[in-house]
Amino acid sequence: MLLWYIPNQVQPGHRGDEVRADHNSLDTLTEQAKALEVYGWGGALLGTGFGRPDTFTVATALATRTTTFRPLIATRPGYWRPANFAAAAAALDHLSGGRVLVNIVSGKDNLAAYGDSEGDQAHRYGRTREFMHLVRRLWTAEDVTFHGEHFWVDHSTVVPRPLIKQPRLYFGGASPAAERVAALEADVQLFWGEPLDGVAERIDRLKKLSADLGREHAPLEFGLRVTTFVRDTSAEAWAEAEARVAAMQTDPNQHTSVGQQRLLDLTARGDVLDENLYTAPGRFGGAGAGTTWLVGSPAEVARALKRYQALGITHFVLSDTPYLNEIKRQGEQLLPLLTAS
């Protein structure tokens, strides 16, 4: 699965994107979604967080204006209750011809702004696991009664059913608590752009953890969410990547998650790892998937991604800015190298 990223931001200029007044209008977002279809992408992860346009509403609007575009809808337990979300996602999946993908997010958010709260890490991930477990049951069973520590339903049946048995559940997180949730309930564990040895170690650990915990679902799959900085030649890519980093403002990451801290710690190993994994952006405020970049020519970046694929990565969520321009550039230059037999 080859996906892109649509940031879904109120303010323009996200990570160096083009600054335009209509950057998040339906027409602009539709232009991106349709370009993804034209250039061979499977769909896009849609950013979420209170203070952004509602992600599910945006996904629904884009689904009505496209034919093959698959929205990977980021959502948070607490922002939705499980039965409400299961019903909404099932309806959209049914109406869109089975195109819904779901990314469950447990990271920090402005919880109080929408009347939510949570306790410590154990509470947060306990709630996340319960949310995923109950949503799965509501998509696949009828007359569901469930009384958990965080959520409950009595005699609940979701109609219409998802077109396929259930939308895929993507998940991220690097802490031990997060990895237990992934091993038990996720379909796809997403990693950020770590070096190959770190990704290999995490895949091995999650496979063993799945077996040790008695995972009841199909085997866990793995994905990579990373910035891909592609130019015609290696020299051009590195010159532009270094210039972009030089222009970044130092903005120390606050309240970093375990996964974010893993990326920031990579700078101690060097600015460039595994030939073309660029760690320097993290020193200047790069966060999330923008903390590390895969830099190079199309052939070099494709070769790097195929090394991750050889480790067991089967889902990729790529991006760079300007978003629309890079949808086209990487769709023309990178994707054919990844899909060639």
UniProtKB/TrEMBL annotation:
Domain Luciferase-like as annotated: residue spans: 3-315
InterPro entries: Luciferase-like_dom, Luciferase-like_sf, SsuD_RutA_monooxygenase
Keyword Flavoprotein: yes
Keyword Oxidoreductase on entry: yes
Gene3D superfamilies listed in its UniProt record: Luciferase-like domain
GO MF term list: monooxygenase activity
Keywords: Flavoprotein, FMN, Monooxygenase, Oxidoreductase
Protein name, as recorded: Alkanesulfonate monooxygenase
